[in-house]
């Protein structure tokens, strides 16, 4: 997958935070069909702007 993303846009829908953090450059967090937050993956996992996003990626919610 890491080789493919050099040449293609790949959209992955997953509940695996480890896979999302490892394989993506950008991450979107959806909740109840709404896009809550979208940013560089490093920002989402290390410095989310919204508490709900942080709660989800740290396993405190969902």
Automatic annotation (TrEMBL):
The keyword Transport appears for this protein: yes
The organism's place on the tree of life at top rank = Bacteria
GO BP annotations of the record are:
phosphate ion transport
Classification via SUPFAM superfamilies: P-loop containing nucleoside triphosphate hydrolases
| Keyword field | Cell membrane, Membrane, Phosphate transport, Translocase, Transport
Name-wise, this protein is Uncharacterized protein
